[in-house]
Amino acid sequence: MKISILLPYKENFTKNAAGAVSLFVNQTIKVSKYKKAIKVFGNTNYKDYLNNNYKDIIFNKKVFRSSSKVFVDNFLKDKWVINSDIIEIHNRPNYIKYIKKKFTNKIFLYFHNDPLSMDGSTSVKDRLYLLNNIERLIFNSEWSKNRFFINLEFNAAHSQKIHVCYQSSNKVKIDFKKKKKIITFIGKLNTAKGYDLFGIAIIDILKKYKDWTATVIGNEEREIINFKHERLNIIGFTNNAFILNYLKKVSISVVCSRWEEPFGRASLEAASRGSAVIISKNGGLPETTNSALILKSLNKMELVKSITKLIDDKKKLIQYQKNNYNNFKLTHKFVSNLIDNIRLKAFPNIFNIKKNSVLKIIHITNFNNRFDGRLHYNTSKRLNNGFIRLGHNVLSISDRDIINNNKRFNDMRGVKTLQKSVLNNFKNFKPDLVVLGHADSINLETIDYMKSQNVKIAQWFLDPVGKNSPDYKKNKRRILDKSKNIDANFLTSDPNDLDFKINNSFYIPNPSDFSFETLKNYETSCENDLFFAMSHGVHRGILKKGKFDDREFFIKKLMNTNKDIKFDIYGMNQKEPIWGDEFIKLISNSSMGLNLSRGNPVKYYSSDRIAQLMGNGLLTFVDKKTSYGDFFTNKEIVLYEDLNDLSYKLNKYKRDHKDRKSIAKNGKDKYMKYFNSNIVCKFIISKTFELKNKKESFLWEK
Hints:
single chain; 702 residues; alpha/beta; Rossmann fold; 4 domains; seven-stranded parallel β-sheet; six-stranded parallel β-sheet; 24 helices; 24 strands
């Protein structure tokens, strides 16, 4: 999960100037399980950032555009943001419409103030827009949430996207014996915060109780309220670390706001440090601690009375202090876990995936429906069978068939229709995983849209991609075309042996299938010795005049060298290639099979023919340079070094019936056990979702 957090413009995410929003963001991401995947974006003139997750958005102001819009525009251009799963906006509902136009992934909006006082959420129309277009709305108190729903009906449909997530503080060990006779007021020094009320009350208290002092932490440039007393210490604005440390020795904290505070960080932090807290009942203040002394009315007499009650009754004072401390639950870890769970629940399709989860999978590849069963025995069908046998719900889309059937004047190649069909299927089916197989015509815009819906995407690729392989440049381009836009790539060549790098790539063998590979040729007396089949074009299905395959040289030389071997060869020497049930019938007549791929051998690469040869119990010969000896011993497969070595071994095993049958049986058993479609599909899912299971092992995985 990749998360981008956008602070309000000019919110200082810095150690000595951070406000409540920055503190909340910093403290919760530090203990988030997604902290390595979170980046915070803001704009400040200071450099002492709260942590390394922060990135400052630097831009030039424009005469005819608001700085906030330029700020948001630059934020949306950042590569991290573009690839994010979630954008989390703090306290700026007016940013949402602009972001929504350019960002298709999930958007969370956090309210730290009264929603009805903020541009973008004041009207019913504004708030309805937010309800319909935001994935999650997160409020800092029940009071703030209730304000949002004034003149709106809260129904069951809203419950999943509406959350209350309070601010937090850390909880440290407090020695109540070290508490001093100190009363604090922390916050803006204005009438809205009740500083004028605190001032006149505290002067009376200090006059009466000579051994008590008062400390005021905060400032206010727009409203000047002055109080003086020799035991009244006015510190001014300071950083949060100082405040939290100072509160350890404070006995009484007063938060007597006149205005409807959405929450109240001052009372929250005082409670976390074991202060006795006196609060007004306005806004969300009563939600900061359930152990506060709440003022019945907001006037000097009531405040003096409440402070006096605590000073005069030491037992009651200690009781309030300990109740605040012992009942404090809103730690950074607690609140961060709440937020992480909100994030997690926004992605039920992906982030709850476990080893045995049942997935909805869209499998897009060429299922060759237009060939009426001639090409039924192919890897596409094998993998489809594997996903289904594992218990998953699979929707199959045959891309080439859609293209072939939808070529028209306004879509000459049928590609536009394919994108539309894929996206319609995607929206209706809502998969957890999309698997592409040689789906070259699926464009990057379609893939990016699917990715934006937080669906995992994998692709498999069967063609050779070694440097000296046929169609090297073309195949390299095909695999790289989508590789960076998807989660995992699976090749039938060893990715580590290629001359280019493919992101998040893995080797897979050509899968066998229990319903396809049903023969046991080692149990029968076969008419022919060696079977070999190739084709000049799968889709054409017949020999093409003038088309030549370099394997023909090798096969002809092999045949001329071994007159005693009875060959059964297709796809050359004027013998047409074979398909479907005819292929099964003809392969059943040979005791041995040659697995010979086009071009020079590439580590682990083989055409999908190997699954049919070994899976049907033919003694299979493979070029040693493919490194198949890493997987199979000489009791399961026959590796040859060159044509002469192959000729020798062909004649040897033609005569040695017992050894030939034993090796063929062992080869089939091993291939069907370790290289079957169920296991290959399980590997694809495991790597795509990064599932970790120490007990799970795959024979081919190094």
